[in-house]
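Dear colleague,

As promised, here are the two records you asked about, laid out in our usual form so they can be pasted straight into your sheet.

NAME FIELD: protein one
SEQUENCE, THEN STRUCTURE:
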Amino acid sequence: MKVIGKLKPAGCAAIVAGAVLALAACTPSAPGPTASGTASASASATEQASASGQASSGQPSTTAPASPSASPGTTATVGALVPGFPEKLLPVMPGAKVVSSSFDKTSTPATAAMVGSITSPAAAVVDFYTKQLEAQGFKVVPGDNVGGVASKDFLRGDNETVNIAVVEAGGVSTFTIGANVAAESAK
């Protein structure tokens, strides 16, 4: 594994992809589109049912325990971009549907994550975000996947990182993108 600075790209990709995939199961803790201050994650009803051997109704779980790693400044929502989400940094790919998003500008570094889906090949998703991030001064870290998942890491300066991971199934690409950047970059 090639090391750039102090980062290990595959390790960072796995951590960011895991954290962002956990966001995919994020559900609001109260009625309404936004849960503020308590990001939560749980397995979907389908995953829970399959783990217990029960049939699923296909409905996602509406309650979940609080995430032990959520910081007090984190906001998250399902089905849209959370208010204040840094769309200039992480734009929504044209034609993509936002599955969930989270943002915390109060942490150091600021963190933003988005899960989306689109009926485009995984390579097209990676290409779109590569062009967007390179235009903002991010450099691609060598490596194109982690395990069997298309994954790309980006680095700007010594400590701003972005990861994109894409899984393609049945003609639909589901992507997770997570960023850890200086607060002034999260616009």
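NAME FIELD: protein two
SEQUENCE, THEN STRUCTURE:
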Amino acid sequence: MRGALVVLEGAEGVGKTTQLRRLSARAARQGLAVTLVREPGGTPVGDEVRRLLLETSHAIVPRAEALLFMASRAQLIDDVIRPALSRGDLVLTDRFFLSTYAYQIAGRGLDEAGVIAANGFATTGVVPDVTLLLDLPATVGAERVAARGAQDRVERAGDAFHERVRAAFRQYASPEWQQIHPECGPISLVDAAGSELEVEERIWGHLAAQLPETFLSGQGSHKYG
């Protein structure tokens, strides 16, 4: 039986990584077999790509940036995601291709049709079962990023860039956008304000609604359809 692919997305500082750890631990307590990955990265090739993409000393043109993200994604899908789904695992990923749409199309201004075509080549038909799009006011996200200290190349892209990214993410949550982008699968907007526990409960509620056979099931089997 095939597993399920769940993606956490959002602009900088919304708390994706924290919530992914909490979701992974809670799912494991439910008896689910969990594979946890991130983008870019997750494989030796992907980790090298991640280093190149985030290193502040590199000046990477937008087309090259997009293709590097997709190269990491292609390796991750073949080496990790597809095998995990085949085993029946719950695959949880910190970012996936919705970030490419937000950062490279909306943020960098690349041609949408070209990016979508290249992404289709990289993903070879893999579609998330659900994407949880965490959302915070821009000022809160920026404060969280600043509090982390040193910023990577993408985080340093500037306020106007990050505002375009944030606006794009919110657009992606609309039913109209999802209808014309079936390759993205269902997308749920999650309020990321409040305590870590409060956000975790909202995330679990969205997952229970979208994938009840997994997140409302009892202890034990992690196989689902």
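A couple of things worth noting about protein two: The first strand starts at residue 4 and ends at 9. Residues 2 and 225 are 6 Å apart (CA to CA).

Best,
R.
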